[in-house]
Amino acid sequence: MVEICTIGGYNEVGKNSTAIKIGDDAYVFDLGIHLENYVKYTQDEDIVDISPKELMKAGAVPDISAIEDWKNNVKMILPTHAHLDHLGAIPYLANNFKAPIMCTPFTSEVLKGILTEDKIKLNNKIRSMSANSSFQANNVKIEFVHMTHSTPHTVMIALHTKEGIILYANDFKFDLFPTLGQKPNFKRLEELGKQKVLALICDSTYAADARKMPSESIAKEMLREVMLGIDSKNKHVVVTTFSSHIARLKSIVEFGQKMNRKIVFMGRSMAKYVRAAEATGIAKFTNKVEVLKFSGQIKRKLKKIAKDRGKYLMVVTGHQGEPKSTLAKMMNNELKFKFFPEDHIIFSCRTIPTPTNIANRQKLEADLRTFNVRIFKDIHQSGHAAREDLRDLINLVKPQHIIPAHGELRMTSALADLAVEMGYKKGQNVHVMGNGERLKL
Length: 441
Description:
By secondary structure, the chain is of the alpha/beta class.
């Protein structure tokens, strides 16, 4: 028998975690933080050393008491990629399980960087395996299937059991023209569909969005327009984006070089993800970019940049207006930096629509407008599949059961509605679940 426990990420976008029990053995897929609650509680965008119990009480990490009776049966923790809403609770919660962590090389490097920087000790061994690889673990085979997403080395995980395959597809997009790495492994998904896929646990974030999610190559062209197509002579230019989005950072660097500007990355999380990208050979930044991690270094550099207007491209943390980010500190005068009218601020992101993020970004933009700068927003394409991508996935893998994940009820319900439209029956083989529930198949 297969039993699935929806630990977190089924009532909200964040703190993603699912446990699957096969016979006596259990496997935990993802252990992420809830970014909204985490930033609200810690006032930080990065992982900091803080009590796991306090974070659980604040709703910032998954409530693993949902699998208290499985705790000693957990054989492996399997994060799908390096985003904090899938990986960020591992430093706080993994010691509750006597189980190794298995992930892709980039994900492994990001996790090790977090643990080293914050001096957090895990008893769990961290192992890495390439995408499009598999291994035998006790009575199951675990397979990593390469996917495109807004961070490298993202995978869907196929758990091969005697009862059939459980496919954990949480986060992904079907990018046919990626700017970094290979296309999704459609061939393997099609092969899995010819076998018995017992259940698909699937990202629902954009299930209501009736389109195919545009490629990262579209976001690159949007960046090209604002960075190279608009006169920025003798102006400060600042770009802010997701620190984990290595493909986007590569595009920013490419255009920064074409602008003949010296490029500086500023912020702790930026430094962490860049280091992981270089350690795994995904991208080389340090011969083209100066990477500054700490406020003291950044403050000194900004003093120099202030005198050399038009010569630098600043790439900074703070796209959601996080109070402790570099851009927020530039605004609150902590870094003693001043903008001038018509300086360029490029938000290569969208605001994640939560109350805290919306409030933080509104404050940041209001502060920026007092300088009469030019603000370029939404220079971005999402890393999540939209409705028509989800339809394609279901058609490829032909699952017997569908469990919508990674979203609020309106999102998981939208995926359920799509499944019903495709001939599935709600309650019978489409299961909209909340956090901490269990399903036997």
